[in-house]
Write a structure and sequence with these properties.
By secondary structure, the protein is an alpha/beta fold. The protein has 2 domains: about 80 residues, Ubiquitin-like (UB roll), CATH 3.10.20; about 120 residues, Cytidine Deaminase, domain 2, CATH 3.40.140. The chain is about 35% helix and about 25% strand.
Length: about 240
């Protein structure tokens, strides 16, 4: 009998300035990148220089983060509510503003369809866990021509945090880049992309209605059905 396919899932916690902040259910790889990406997505750090320290806890899976206290206070003062999201995590959505804000100016354009398909082909080719189990999500950052970061995780939001965290640790400027994700684009993913200054997000699946509203507000382009013959372009200016 063939061995049963399983995907690793573990709990990893994070404290920010001595206070419990989050516990992820995630795939136990690229955990430093996960923590940094989450801190950025939540507004605790704008650049890697805002992160004073990030110390792992052994033997437990967890981190102690020290960030500038003024950023912590700014996060706590934001008028938002934490929502359990369709992307399997929690997303800070400015619900009232999201539904009423005007469309933003486009931040940039995704590559042509042929190039986009080629990038997704590379994403899937790099997916070792997907090949081994079939039960994983992937994400990658790109300038439209080359993949610069790639991550896999049991949670699509974790994969995105790992990618964005890896870029921050490498001191890569996120503005104007695109994000490739293998699952649907939920509000959670759109919010993370908007916070990072991304120009576009593409998926073989589709975006949600709230993701589209967040993208319009921030000026991101969303591309659904990106590997099909007729991709769906959600342009903030149309």
């Amino acid at each position: 009998m063939a061995a049963l396919a399983l995907v690793d899932e573990v709990a990893v916690w994070l404290e920010v300035n001595g206070k419990p902040a989050v516990t992820w259910m995630c795939t136990p790889s690229q955990l430093e990148e996960l923590a940094v990406g989450w801190l950025h997505g939540e507004g605790y750090v704008a650049t890697i220089d805002d992160l004073r320290s990030l110390r792992p806890c052994a033997p437990d899976l967890g981190f102690w983060a020290e960030v500038n206290e003024d950023l912590v206070q700014a996060v706590e003062a934001e008028d938002r509510q934490q929502v359990l999201a369709s992307g399997c995590g929690a997303v800070p959505v400015f619900l009232a503003d999201t539904h009423t804000a005007p469309r933003g100016s486009r931040r940039g354009s995704p590559p042509a369809l042929g190039a986009l398909r080629g990038l997704f082909k590379e994403v899937f080719a790099r997916g070792k866990l997907y090949k081994d189990t079939g039960g994983i999500h992937a994400a990658a950052l790109t300038d439209g021509a080359t993949l610069h970061h790639h991550a896999e995780d049991i949670g699509r939001h974790n994969a995105v945090d790992k990618v964005l965290g890896g870029a921050l640790l490498a001191r890569r400027d996120l503005a104007g880049h695109g994000l490739l994700v293998t699952g649907r684009i939920s509000a959670e993913l759109a919010f993370k992309g908007a916070r990072a200054g991304l120009a576009w997000i593409a998926t073989p699946s589709v975006p949600s209605t709230l993701a589209q509203k967040i993208a319009r507000r921030s000026g991101m382009v969303l591309v659904g059905r990106a590997v099909s013959g007729q991709p769906h372009m959600h342009d903030p200016e149309h």
